[in-house]
Amino acid sequence: MKLVAAILLCLAASALCEKRIINGESAPLYSHPYIVSLEGLVDSFFFTYWKHICGGSLIDRQWVLTAAHCVEGMGKSKLRVKLGVITLGETNNYQQQVAISQVTVHGQYSSTASGIPNDIALLKLSQLAVLNKNVQIAQLASAGSSFYNTECVLAGWGKQNEGHTLVDATELHEVNITKISTAECRREWPGEAITDKHICVHDASPPAGQRPSGCMGDSGGPMMCGPRHNILAGVTSWGERTCSGTFPSVYTRVSAYLGWIRNNGPEL
């Protein structure tokens, strides 16, 4: 049975999400300078603390693109981003911590509708990002971009497979995976409303248990395509709960939202 995990495996009170890249590898230094770590403020019984909850992409010196489900129900005061992060919990010469001054969720986003439509959000930074070797702006996919049957790369932080156990990881990881057609994605997800505003990746060639997947995340993080994996094509949205790689992972298609991004965020 196909179990859709709308990437909403979040703690009920705080909406903090699970994050995983399955069967990935450590990302080389400087290889994903556009990726950000989105942190949420966790209120525990005894104290509060900041926790990495999702990924995102820097698309302008003052704007980050992420998934709507990552910030649903969370005010700007309980969110912040870290730029230039390589290893969670460690500082480096490139890293910047920035507060959020504005959160904009797509007006037609629905966490309960079939296909989790319009799972996209914009975060306005409280100050301009300082660009450096490990902090750069992502190039958005142009209108009508397909990337069909090309290899794309997913990146993020989160749990890793060690045998049959998922363990926490702090290093940035990446995985290469092939973009499939919308028609193929619909065939694999017959009970879900897959539209042209989704973009899907899948690789069924490795044996079961070794298939790459962007399972449960890294929610909100980037799907990069193009000849040098330098074009932001998708925002991590949803997949299957088992994280087996049996079925495609589904992303919000960035090129379908260029008008919305322009109207609500930076000028493109």
UniProtKB/TrEMBL annotation:
Coiled coil: none
Entry-linked PROSITE patterns: TRYPSIN_DOM, TRYPSIN_HIS, TRYPSIN_SER
SUPFAM superfamilies in alphabetical order: Trypsin-like serine proteases
InterPro entries: Peptidase_S1_PA, Peptidase_S1_PA_chymotrypsin, Peptidase_S1A, Serine_Proteases_S1, Trypsin_dom, TRYPSIN_HIS, TRYPSIN_SER
Species classification: Eukaryota, Metazoa, Spiralia, Lophotrochozoa, Mollusca
Subcellular location(s) of the protein: Secreted
Alphabetically ordered keywords of this record: Disulfide bond, Hydrolase, Protease, Secreted, Serine protease, Signal
Protein name per the record: Fibrinolytic enzyme, isozyme C
Major localization class: secreted
Signal peptide, first to last residue: 1-17
Database matches in Gene3D superfamilies: Trypsin-like serine proteases
KW Signal (keyword) present: yes
Keyword Secreted: yes
Residue ranges annotated for the Peptidase S1 domain, each copy included: 21-266
Pfam families: Trypsin
